[in-house]
Amino acid sequence: MKAFWPRLLAAALPVLFAASLGLAGTLTGTVINRTTGQPVPNTDVDLLSPTRGMTLLASVKSDVQGRFTASNDAIGTVPVLLRVTYQDVGFNTFAPPMRPNVEVEVFNVSKDPKAINIDSHVIIFQPQGDKLIGAEEYNIKNTTKPPVAFFRTEGNFDFDIPDKGVLKNVTATNGATGMDVPQAAIDNGKGRYAVAYAFRPGETNLRLSYELPYPNNSATVKLPAAYGGVRLLLVAPPGVTLAGEGVSPAGQEQGMNVFLHDPLAAKGSLAVSVSGVASPVAADSAGGQQAQEGNSRTEPEGQQVNLAPPRIDDLKWPLFGGLLALFAFGAILLSRKQVIVAAAPEAEVESAPVSKNAAKEVKAAAAGASVKETVNASLDSLKDEVFRLELRKQAGTISDEDYAREKARVEKLLRDLVR
């Protein structure tokens, strides 16, 4: 009986693969307005390929019931990003491979800034020669009821960078889509910027990176606060010292130094002295820890930040570490509760008052669920790795050659998983 499950799993995989081939090329879905709960008719739906440079795969229009069908040979074999423009705002939905049907969510648009609140602010420093790379992430929540999206064309989220800073990249990721979308920064002068981004209900992570002068491996950085009362977390790699009034060490995570500071007042600032050269982090060690962590993540919700000491479990923001942990994004771990779906013991199945065929169906269903969980967990892990790679590129801590090589490797893993 012990050999039964491996044989059943081996038989189930070709079935799933055949089913995916049958679904490849076609994607159906419905455009839903989550504010009203009604379908959205006669709206354009664009299907893009994130792994192919946002290539347009298809463009269709929803019918009177909000339904649509799109065809392309790549659909079903690669991830697809669906984009719908509603009330002059673009809404994105992610459709992973092997998912033949999807709901594209849109929302009514609000201009009220009270629709969002900033939950946490994380700042990471990474020396790079005579430059100091700064990377920041804001965790933003929209809990409006009924749910609406917050958007203003003139800019609806402000942020500041330190004096003499040169802004490099700005991206936004919503938990519902899981896709990192580049943003155009609106320069308001004197280090103040804004983005015009539709903050849909749920959590959004706004990330940005910049360069600062770092002569003689030291700098005093004045960190401005665009918003008040936001929890602040500072991270630096080994070999780099952070000091400032009210800055307290909070231990280490994956060998990275973590510091805390009380929330700043709106338009306040914090002066931090940064000095030293980052010590290298072993690639094998970082990769092994990352892989081990990935194996324990099976639930897409409930992600939180764990830091010790002290614990600040309520900081929920997915800070994606660099593939080699060079940039210290691996300083904060994604932890998710492990969900185990246990099949009933064989003895119980056999003794139950059901037929042998019914018992076989129960076992087959359990095996199918196990395969589905494995595939979904692997897709989540690959998606996280793509995000980590993109963040490292934004921070300028990976060369174009290495970026291209790592991206090709991840894409190959994704294709192999689908096959």
Put the structure in a nutshell:
By secondary structure, the chain is an alpha+beta fold. It has helices at 4-23, 283-295, 346-351, 356-395, 400-418; strands at 26-33, 38-39, 44-49, 55-61, 67-71, 80-86, 89-95, 101-106, 109-110, 117-128, 131-142, 149-150, 157-160, 166-174, 180-182, 186-187, 192-195, 202-213, 218-224, 231-236, 240-243, 248-253, 256-261, 269-276.
Could you explain how this protein is built, in words?
The chain is an alpha+beta fold. The chain folds into 3 domains: 24-106, Sandwich (Immunoglobulin-like), CATH 2.60.40.1120; 113-276, Immunoglobulin-like (Sandwich), CATH 2.60.40; 283-418, no CATH class. 23% of the residues lie in helices and 35% in strands. The protein has 5 helices and 24 strands. The chain has helices at 4-23, 283-295, 346-351, 356-395, 400-418; strands at residues 26-33, 38-39, 44-49, 55-61, 67-71, 80-86, 89-95, 101-106, 109-110, 117-128, 131-142, 149-150, 157-160, 166-174, 180-182, 186-187, 192-195, 202-213, 218-224, 231-236, 240-243, 248-253, 256-261, 269-276. The strands form 6 sheets. It has an 8-stranded mixed sheet with strand order 15-14-18-11-10-20-23-22, covered by helices on one side. Strands 1, 2, 5 and 8 form a 4-stranded mixed sheet that branches. A hairpin with a 2-residue loop joins strand 22 (248-253) and strand 23 (256-261). It is globular, with a radius of gyration of 23 Å. The protein starts with a helix and ends with a helix. Mean pLDDT is 74; it is low at 12-22, 282-356 and 358-372.
